[in-house]
Amino acid sequence: MRILRDPRAVPEEARGATAAIGNFDGVHLGHRAVIETARAAAPDAPLGVVTFEPHPREVFRPDDPPFRLTGPETRANRLRKLGVDWLFEMPFEMIRPLSPEAFAREILGEGLGLSHAVTGPDFRFGKDRAGTVQDLGRFGQLFGFGTTEAPVTEASGLRISSTAIRTAISEGRPRDAATLLGHWHRIDGPVLHGEKRGRDLGYPTANMSIEGLHPPRFGVYAVKVDVLTGPHAGTWDGAASVGVRPMFGENQANIETYLFEFEGDVYDTHLSVALVEFLRPEERFDGVETLIAQMGEDCARARAILSETA
């Protein structure tokens, strides 16, 4: 999959794509339905996704708490796994002032050269979100691309939404989130240099930031980990702590992951950490020895859970 960020510089081989359009935060089952509708609309055309960066909500409501389920890297990784050929990651500030008609003409038609555009039923576009799905169909006829409205998607009788997924993650219910997502909720990013306390405790961890993301319930999780880059690329089971590490004073929230049966250095590589099951809340212990004993219990429980988890 190739990522393009400038609608004025689209290579010829990307033109004529059929594309799903939206924010795709979390790339959940509803988003997948839109993508599969796009794939079916023109099976022989390149498959694209048109999305926006930063997320429009971050621009219009900058003081809101972090809400994103996925950052750009995680979203791109997920779309790549779904077989998307082109990710058109449009700079939101570039398209923000465009009227619905100008967006359809300058971005989708002339810029990206789409042959077909697929959206969900609630899709809005253009300045002040004034454009509707019906407007997109009308503009498509004018500017040379077809349009399709994908159906609403449900799971277990519930309409799939990013809001429902955020609630499950906030409450420490990663399996329920996975039911709506169609995959494990993942936190992706580079491994950062930390305090190296885990190494001193006998549990060296890979530390990653969760800044800008909707925070999971703070606590310890059984996790599955993909090392995406570097000489140790591969997949491991593990246990991860999400939170502020109350044993060691005030800290910025992050995720620290211990990989089972792993030997090596993953600093500055990129990891993808899938939250599988919530084990216990974050807590302060009365001493380091108590903490170490609890970490041993956490890892044993995580191993047992993950041995039975595909």
UniProtKB/TrEMBL annotation:
<feature type="domain" description="Riboflavin kinase">
    <location>
        <begin position="180"/>
        <end position="307"/>
    </location>
</feature>
<dbReference type="InterPro" id="IPR015865">
    <property type="entry name" value="Riboflavin_kinase_bac/euk"/>
</dbReference>
<dbReference type="InterPro" id="IPR002606">
    <property type="entry name" value="Riboflavin_kinase_bac"/>
</dbReference>
<keyword id="KW-0808">Transferase</keyword>
<dbReference type="InterPro" id="IPR023465">
    <property type="entry name" value="Riboflavin_kinase_dom_sf"/>
</dbReference>
<dbReference type="InterPro" id="IPR015864">
    <property type="entry name" value="FAD_synthase"/>
</dbReference>
<keyword id="KW-0548">Nucleotidyltransferase</keyword>
<dbReference type="InterPro" id="IPR014729">
    <property type="entry name" value="Rossmann-like_a/b/a_fold"/>
</dbReference>
<comment type="similarity">
    <text>Belongs to the ribF family.</text>
</comment>
<keyword id="KW-0511">Multifunctional enzyme</keyword>
<dbReference type="GO" id="GO:0008531">
    <property type="term" value="F:riboflavin kinase activity"/>
</dbReference>
<dbReference type="GO" id="GO:0006747">
    <property type="term" value="P:FAD biosynthetic process"/>
</dbReference>
<dbReference type="InterPro" id="IPR023468">
    <property type="entry name" value="Riboflavin_kinase"/>
</dbReference>
<comment type="pathway">
    <text>Cofactor biosynthesis; FMN biosynthesis; FMN from riboflavin (ATP route): step 1/1.</text>
</comment>
<comment type="pathway">
    <text>Cofactor biosynthesis; FAD biosynthesis; FAD from FMN: step 1/1.</text>
</comment>
<keyword id="KW-0288">FMN</keyword>
<keyword id="KW-0067">ATP-binding</keyword>
<keyword id="KW-0285">Flavoprotein</keyword>
<keyword id="KW-0418">Kinase</keyword>
<dbReference type="GO" id="GO:0009398">
    <property type="term" value="P:FMN biosynthetic process"/>
</dbReference>
<dbReference type="GO" id="GO:0003919">
    <property type="term" value="F:FMN adenylyltransferase activity"/>
</dbReference>
<dbReference type="Pfam" id="PF01687">
    <property type="entry name" value="Flavokinase"/>
</dbReference>
<keyword id="KW-0274">FAD</keyword>
<dbReference type="GO" id="GO:0005524">
    <property type="term" value="F:ATP binding"/>
</dbReference>
<dbReference type="Pfam" id="PF06574">
    <property type="entry name" value="FAD_syn"/>
</dbReference>
<keyword id="KW-0547">Nucleotide-binding</keyword>
<protein>
    <recommendedName>
        <fullName>Riboflavin biosynthesis protein</fullName>
        <ecNumber>2.7.1.26</ecNumber>
        <ecNumber>2.7.7.2</ecNumber>
    </recommendedName>
</protein>
<dbReference type="GO" id="GO:0009231">
    <property type="term" value="P:riboflavin biosynthetic process"/>
</dbReference>
<comment type="function">
    <text>Catalyzes the phosphorylation of riboflavin to FMN followed by the adenylation of FMN to FAD.</text>
</comment>
